[in-house]
Design goal:
By secondary structure, this protein is α+β, with helices and mostly antiparallel strands. It contains three helices and nine strands.
Length: 217
């Protein structure tokens, strides 16, 4: 006789601290002379690099995200068109202690725009594995409850797989909150409030159970 199969879902959710902060820095320049735009972009990009260098190990990664140098449309009556340019660098930081001071120094520079930070976990973070393990445990507990309800016990696991996340699930929500503060050396620093990251897992579990006894009763 074929074994009875029980199919259940297991779920788990955790609030964990972020492991990385990501922000972007964009330098810009505008001039009627195109070479001047390129020169200013180069100088301002060097200023950004110099500031990032001061924070050494706190800056985990920096990547050039986009370089744009273009000619603007000439307005009626203008003898020559303006040229504009921008250069964006994406920065990843793992040490949050100097982050507010770093952002304040970058934001105070001439023609420098800062966006972020966006909080996140590292790709493949251990937090995800822990939550998936809890979801499997939850599924096994549910399966045992179903088996006990019909006078059975768990027999054999047939399948464990990821299930679609519940509607409205946002496992990697990000935001930045904070205001102006002051660094230990008296300079400006943003008072940042890293947001907890919501990590969720949902698994599908199929198991066979021993012969139910509730019908015999």
């Amino acid at each position: 006789m074929d074994k009875t199969i029980v199919t259940v879902h297991g779920e788990a959710r955790r609030e964990v601290p972020p492991e990385q902060a990501v922000f972007s820095v964009t330098v810009s320049a505008k001039d009627r002379d195109k070479p001047s735009v390129v020169t200013r972009l180069t100088q301002r990009a060097a200023e950004v690099s110099e500031i990032l260098d001061r924070y050494g190990p706190a800056v985990e990664r920096r990547e050039t995200a986009g370089l744009h140098v273009y000619q603007e449309y000439r307005r009626r009556g203008e003898r020559s068109a303006m040229h504009s340019g921008s250069l964006t660098t994406t920065v990843t930081v793992a040490d949050f202690d100097p982050l507010g001071e770093l952002l304040a120094q970058l934001a105070s520079g001439d023609s420098i725009e800062v966006s972020g930070p966006w909080w996140r976990l590292r790709p493949g973070s251990r937090a995800g594995a822990d939550v998936r393990r809890e979801a499997v445990t939850d599924a096994l507990d549910r399966a045992r409850e179903y088996a006990a309800a019909v006078g059975s016990e768990l027999d054999r696991i047939i399948e464990i797989s990821d299930a679609e996340a519940a509607e409205g699930n946002h496992p990697m929500m990000m935001r930045v909150a904070g205001g102006a503060a002051e660094a230990e050396d008296g300079g400006a620093a943003f008072d940042l409030d890293p947001r907890q990251q919501t990590v969720e897992a949902r698994v599908l579990l199929r198991v066979t159970i021993t012969e139910p006894t509730v019908l015999n009763a």
